[in-house]
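[agent] plan:
  1. take the single chain provided in the ticket
  2. run structure prediction with default settings
  3. attach structure tokens to the ticket
  4. add a short note for the reviewer (M.T.)
[agent] executing step 1
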Amino acid sequence: MKRREFLKSSALMGSAAVLGVSHYSHAAAKKATIQSYREIGKTGLKMSDISFGCGKLSSASLIARAMSRGINYFDTSPDYGDSEEVLGEAIKKLKKRDKMIIASKFCDKEFYPGHLPLGSKKSDFIKVVDGSLSRLNTDYLDICFVHALGEGTSLFSAALKRIPGLKASEKIRQEEKKRLLEENLLSAVETLKKAGKIRFLGASSHGPYFMKDLMMTAIKSGHYDLIMIAFNFLKFPEVPLILHEAEKNTVGLIAMKTLAGAKAMNLDPDGESFERAAFKWTLKQRGVNGLVVTIKSTDQLDLYVKASGKGFRASDQALLDQYKKLYNAKHCRTGCGECLDSCSSNVNIATILRYQMYFQDYGMEKIALEGYASLREKADICNSCVDAPCEKACPYGLPVSSLLQTAHNRLSFNT
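[agent] step 2 finished; step 3 output follows
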């Protein structure tokens, strides 16, 4: 073994040992590693093309394993349970903070979803960042996101009452644009940057309201260094416009929700993998700097990293076509929102079905239950709906009403 290889192997074993990773062997060093790093806009940061979503972070040792595979970007949030604390444990023990890109959100830890609402004070934004830094055992965040723009949860119930005469969606558009550009937020960011507590500002959206409009606003405003959007191989007709605008303005772009519901984890013929096919499709799109995916286990880590730096092949497209055939009329597209104004009861259809996806397909039961509990309008009202206008409005022919009723039964604490 060459000296350089020996030192690299020793460093990896040391990282694993300090975090309690058992059964580490030389064979582990031969597992698939990240093959591609891409610059995020004009930030100067280079992220692993496959990066670590910490929404269901199980242990600090998994972070050590991810770094040994070459992953360097870790996306967390105060309202992802104990995610920041667990990641903070890894940061403290690994002592490789300068090798990591840490992204968190302007969120409150006390509840999910904890996004700071419109009208928050400057001190509120500074307080939540200080809380994140303490839990993460670090002096700075590389990126802090204004998160989930266009989600339309109960945080915006006041917005639905505040502007008479407009549709619910249009009210939310106006309120969310204000949240994106409000003075207290931007002043807090300036203060936090001067203090060295955050380096770059991001904006994220998985819809369902006006993802394109809000992300275009963020890109053109000049305040945001990068954006993160829901994007996968299912139909997202407006995303190419966002990709083009971000690239034109040298604003970074990271994709999330790339598995389109993650319903087909067993599609794996002839050694190919649906997950890897989905990742490769996303990464081949011009303007995408990388993707973030929730990683819950070593098996997922090993599977996902194998997509890094790989080209998209005809066999990958065949897998995605198979997924579409199986789930095209069953999966609610994150970010679509075409049906929302059809409901006279203002049921937030897309958000409810996203929480159902978290519960059923992502294994994020607690987040799903808490998110659903926070909604003012629940889907129980769908039981008495006669004509189901949401189904007529769905461009993909989904049985929306029955999906909502199933979601309510699964996500309600009292059932």
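[agent] step 4 note for reviewer: Strands lie at 37-39, 46-48, 50-53, 73-75, 101-105, 141-146, 198-205, 226-230, 252-256, 290-294.
[agent] ticket updated
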